[in-house]
Write a structure and sequence with these properties.
It contains 11 helices and 11 strands. By secondary structure, the chain is an alpha/beta fold. It has 2 domains: about 270 residues, Spore Coat Polysaccharide Biosynthesis Protein SpsA, Chain A (Alpha-Beta Complex); about 70 residues. Bound molecules: uridine-5'-diphosphate (UDP) and magnesium ion.
Length: about 375
């Protein structure tokens, strides 16, 4: 089992060489993420004792904001741990920001980030994560489809020793054909391709320990892949059913087009996770396959020419031979370019290609015993 935050604090030992310093971390595909070595999953110190950071992206949700804030503060007061609520106004034009400003004036636990224009939910979450101070990050939608009462359940589960607890909208109130079916397919696909088995990646309501999320850079629609990223780094990830309500106010900002984006993000994540340090394996395999096909068509072309007296121009074989040959060469050249890019990416920023889980050394600096995970 990977150490949880507290365990890792006590277990990360590096004697004889002073305190463990923050070193350049393993660069991860989900962005230029880096996980600090030696202190993996140890929460970074926060400035003001804030324990929980609620992260709420808002795009034109003026009608729910008051009720959301009321329900949220009631739920958080009942939990009784120091918290902050970060609202991100993602380019609203319906007066949401003005409402948030009024709430901020009255409530010192509230922080508001106003985007200059709409950058999307993933960017909004990213901005909030960058400035959040809590030990535990809890993103949640603003439309009250998630229920703030579930926060305590997420936290209870986290206390059992997990690093990520993800909400599962077991009974979900969304449109069947445009939302539920594509989402069901997407969830199955993500689960199969990534090997991290959750039933609902898209549910925004989750709880993360700070250390597993603090350096993640999010692009596209990638916030849903964060539990996967964390799991690949040894975090303990689990899922609990959460309440889901129909949307009472405003409209959903997404339609069927999101499915394509999620699919493309999934391809990126899978590619990056498996081949970030060896892209030529993907391009090269495709290239060699194509050259093989080119050779096969060439042989077939010669064979039918002499065995059946079929003239070269009477078959598509010459064209196929040339086409597969050129595609093959292109793939291999692209692979070489990708290798150059990969080296630039790692070496220019001093990024490592592995994650060290723990290192035990004796006084002389020689490794006495080590439990080290090398991530390819
Ligand atoms: N949202 C956002 N920026 C966007 C789109 C959505 O901040 O460009 C916010 C939105 O205000 C809500 C959350 O993201 O708080 C989820 O959006 P929505 O409810 O439309 O998504 P759905 O629940 O339909 O998947
Ligand atoms: Mg919603």
């Amino acid at each position: 089992m990977f150490p949880t935050a507290t365990q890792s604090n006590t277990n990360s030992t590096k004697t004889g060489s002073g305190p463990a310093t923050a070193e350049p971390g393993y660069s991860h595909p989900l962005g230029a993420a880096s996980v600090q070595t030696h202190t993996s999953f140890a929460a970074a110190p926060t400035s003001n004792g804030t324990e929980l950071s609620l992260i709420i992206p808002i795009c034109n949700e003026v009608d729910t904001i008051d009720s959301l804030h009321e329900q949220l503060t009631a739920a958080l007061a009942a939990i009784g741990r120091p918290y902050e609520i970060i609202y991100i106004d993602d380019g609203s034009n319906d007066g949401s920001y003005e409402k948030l400003e009024r709430i901020w004036q009255k409530d010192h636990t509230v922080r508001v980030i106003k985007f200059a224009r709409n950058f999307g939910k993933t960017a909004a979450m990213s901005a909030a994560l960058d400035s959040a101070r809590g030990e535990i990050m809890i993103p949640m939608d603003a439309d009250l489809q998630n229920d703030p009462k579930d926060i305590v359940r997420l936290l209870d589960k986290l206390e059992e020793g997990y690093d990520v607890v993800s909400g599962w909208r077991k009974k979900r109130y969304d449109e069947l054909f445009l939302r539920l079916i594509p989402s069901w397919i997407a969830n199955r696909l993500i689960s199969t391709m990534t090997g991290v088995h959750l039933r609902d990646y898209g549910c925004c309501l989750k709880a993360y320990r700070r250390a597993v999320i603090q350096d993640v850079k999010l692009y596209g629609e990638m916030h849903r892949f964060v539990p996967i990223y964390a799991s690949w780094h040894g975090a303990r990830v689990t899922e609990i059913p959460v309440i889901h309500h129909p949307r009472r106010f405003g409209k959903s900002k997404y339609g069927i087009s999101r499915t394509t984006k999620v699919l493309l993000d999934l391809i990126t994540v899978t590619f990056m996770s498996n081949y970030l340090t060896k892209p030529i394996y993907v391009f090269g395999t495709a290239g060699l396959g194509s050259l093989g096909l080119s050779f096969a068509s060439f042989v077939w072309m010669i064979f039918i020419r002499y065995a059946y007296n079929t003239h070269f121009t009477d078959t598509p074989m010459p064209v196929l031979t040339a086409m597969f040959f050129m595609i093959g060469i292109q793939f291999i050249l692209m692979g070489l370019l990708a290798e150059l890019l990969m080296r630039t990416y790692h070496e220019s920023q001093g990024k490592r290609t592995y994650v060290i889980n723990r290192m035990l050394e004796n006084e002389s600096g020689a490794a006495e015993s080590a439990q080290i995970n090398f991530t390819p």
